[in-house]
Amino acid sequence: MLFLLNDVVFDLDEACPVTPADARRFEKLDLDYVIELGCELFAENPLLHRTDPGCARRLAWLLHDREPELNAVMFAAPEVGCAPELVEPRFCHLPKPVMAQLQARAARGRLDAVAADRAVWGRMAA
């Protein structure tokens, strides 16, 4: 299962990013709570998906675990250290061929924020 978090594609089928004990702990967290957690993490570090891929991958796993149809999320923070309420989360379900194309671009080093925006989010289109 491929998952796009901002402009990084994670393969969630690789080894589970959480231990079985953590997975049991996380069972009680609903999707809204995980989204709030993501907003808090990206408020502290808007480049979390680049600077701490392990944490970002666990967040992607939690999001997908709570909503299996979800395979793309963007957390847009206006600045480092902003209030979590200012982080704008966006969600998307992308077809498998699109995810494969994004993964291929990432493997070639050609997936960045602008490329992901053009392909998925359309925030800079206007």
Explain this structure to me?
It is a single chain. This protein is an alpha+beta fold and 126 residues long. It has 6 helices and 4 strands; from the N terminus they run ββααααββαα.
Please write out the topology.
Elements: E1 2-5, E2 8-11, H1 20-26, H2 31-44, H3 48-51, H4 53-66, E3 72-76, E4 88-92, H5 96-107, H6 113-121
Parallel strand pairs: 1-3
Antiparallel strand pairs: 1-2, 3-4
Q: Count of DSSP E strands?
A: 4
Strand content: 5-15%
Q: Report how far apart the termini are.
A: 32 Å
**Computed CA radius of gyration, to the nearest angstrom:** 14 Å
Shape: globular
Calculate the mean pLDDT score and round it.
90
Structural class label = alpha+beta
Low-confidence stretches: none
The proportion of residues forming helix, as a percent range, comes to 40-55%
Quick one: biggest sheet? Answer: 4 strands, mixed
Total number of helices: 6
Defining key terms:
four-stranded mixed beta sheet, alpha+beta
Concise description?
By secondary structure, the protein is α+β, with helices and mostly antiparallel strands.
